[in-house]
Structure prediction request, 668 residues.
Amino acid sequence: MIMKLKSIITTVLASLVILAATSCSDLLKVDSKIALFADDNKLDNPTDTVYSVLGIIKGLQKIADRTVILGEARGDLLKITDHANKDLVELYNYDLQNLKSSNRYNNVADYYAVINNCNYYLNRVDTTLVKDNKNVFTREYISVLCYRAWTYLQLAQVYGEVYYVDKPILSGDDANKDKWPLLNIKEVAQCLLVEFEEQEERFIKAGFPDYGKLGGETGSTEQSTQHTSANLFIPVRIIMGDLALWAEQYDKAAKYYRDYLANIDDAHAVGTGSILWFGYDFLVLDPQGDTYASTVGEKAEPICYIPMEADEYDGIVSDLPNIFNSTEDNDYWNQVTRSKAITNLSARQNYCFHYINPQNMSNIRPYYMADKTAKDNDLLKGDLRLQSILSVKPRKIDEFTSSKLNTSEQKLIKINSEKICLYRNDVVYLRLAEALNRAGLPGMAFAVLKNGLCEDVMMDNSIISQEERLRAASMGIDTVWDYEQFRIVEYEIESFNETSLVSSATRTIDDVQITKYNTKFITAMASDPSYQAGNTMGLHSRGCGDASIDTTYTIARKLREMGKNVAAATLTDSIRAVEEYLIDEMALETCYEGYRFGDLMRIAMHRAADGGGGFAENDFLAKRVASRASATIDDPWARDADGDALYQSLYGDGHSLNPNWFLKQTNE
Prediction:
């Protein structure tokens, strides 16, 4: 069925959400404009549940932009400009404990409203209703559980410690925060993961709700993006992987990510999108085009996203274009741009040239490295992804151009104002690598970055040791990247010469080997290699040429940089070395998508166990954020006086949960 996004998401029905607390100062109150449920309402018909689920998506729209801004403004990859709004300036300056609720990025009630609406749905939906031997509401139930889990993870990344509410708030007494435990993100993730695991088998098989196509028309008669409803829901394996990763249950996290990526019915190979130089003189980029940009640009299809309205007439419109891009609305003055940290991290990478002989297409594969000092343009040094997704160029001006307009313009192609991305393929692979690494498989984790996981890599002892393969087998992930999955296909026999088939012992059609045929159909067994050299590569090769043959991109090199004796290095040493590569790859691959602060915080948390405990290894996060404005190509940790002060604030005592990382929960 075709539905207008406006008519579904912006219409508030009596069966949509809950009216909760009435105390205006209580942290758990929700906006009464969203909250109209009666206390005794039962969700027991499909219409009510459709509107309820889409009402939750409407609540997610309120926190969609905020998720990106809070993830990046507190990280190390972004710099504000003189035209940044004052609320953004406060975030960037880390005056987080003094933010008022008037700051547009600081409204904790919006998160609790989504959680409360999810709790109401989960508590009131009739999960016993069966039609045609199928439970009617299982898909919606699981989708709402995923929304609640994702929202809790965002809430905890922003506020540090949050009230864990697992029941709907239906009265002022329910909203008393003293009734609910205050948990950090690891504790929240542990609680949520238990709920999923209790019904894991049922969840995995359920799939997504199908509401057809949404959107395509706005209230002002203009066309908007048409959304496939399945893309609005979070795959359950991914959210379970995230919960396990934050809960530091690394074996489980790796298994859940693996199960999503290698699903036999819907496998997700890495793909080979990249940016390449045309030749070893490093003067011209490949004229065949940038195949990377299409995987992250505004027309790319992420795994799932929050749909936003096309214009304000219909509801909540994303403001991200006016923050990251030069637009007519902001007089072409973008509010943020790239930091020195990401600029120099990108330039610091080695580009490894992979030459193919055009005469016979054979791989000659000589080894070349770009001269980092040969280019005037910093974005054409080292890794090429940053120049692919972020451009700054002069604007065409004439005598009629207003003096208040900027004479240059910035374009970030990752911005899609109608799709705020929650997950895309490479994000899941990066988190798989993070989980594999902490599960004791640094070789396999590093292969995600350098080689790509496929049969040749998995069985190469120089890449993944026998010890790691045995460890992977014990985790149930050794066959994940196996190579040949078979499918049955049928061709109508009228389309082929039956006589020639009879006279042939074997025959192939479209590279499919025929196994039998009858008077109507040919039945054939087709090899379906989901992971192979042709569709899999290391993520680092997205912007750095052929990372698999780069002799400088190794765990051993990072160990030496860390001052470790390679021969005497422990497993923990190797894990930490891979994490250094991994956090850089996360920056290069996912910059400005809202993940950065969470990535820094999560790996800092992993490292706490290496140093004797605590909430996190605060130095890991603090030194990166403090160097964002002053890092150089030779010294990534260079800091000015402001950076020193920021480092001390973010370091704290070095290991405890530091309130200076987070916003303070208040509605005052």
Summary: Residues 446 and 578 are 6 Å apart (CA to CA). The chain is about 35% helix and 10% strand. Residues 1-40, 483-487, 493-520 have pLDDT under 50 and may be disordered.
